[in-house]
Amino acid sequence: MIDHLGFSVSDYERAKAFYAKALAPLDYSLIMEVTAEQTGHAAAAGFGAGGKPDLWFGAEGAMNKPVHIAITAKDRATVDAFYKAAMAAGGRDNGPPGIRAHYHANYYGAFVLDPDGHNIEAVCHAPE
């Protein structure tokens, strides 16, 4: 089981603003931040739900290759809300909400590229 994951971004403040808006429909919010002095390398922001940060990014700078992160949504309407919020926050479409039957019959997901090109997905596995 994964406890948390992290990646770097090219513009820390821009990323915080994007993720605050894009992840709100998934009940994710900024839980905590740590300073460069605390980490020994760069400031970092931890987003999560229920008071636990499990999605971290740091101000180390742009990565050579983007990452793909999928966050579970409670239902299909939440996937739709994520997509709308992420696009309004400046994300770029990488696959609108819909069934991805090549994964399985109930795989309903939406994909948005963040400002650094990271592929952020909201997915619901439940039947309608």
From TrEMBL:
GO molecular-function term, one example from the UniProt record: dioxygenase activity
Pfam families for the chain: Glyoxalase
UniProt keyword annotations, A-Z: Dioxygenase, Lyase, Oxidoreductase
Ranges where the VOC domain occurs: 1-125
Coiled-coil segments on the chain, per record: none
PROSITE patterns: VOC (PS51819)
Highest taxon in the source lineage: Bacteria
Name listed for the protein in its UniProt record: Catechol 2,3-dioxygenase-like lactoylglutathione lyase family enzyme
Organism: Bradyrhizobium stylosanthis
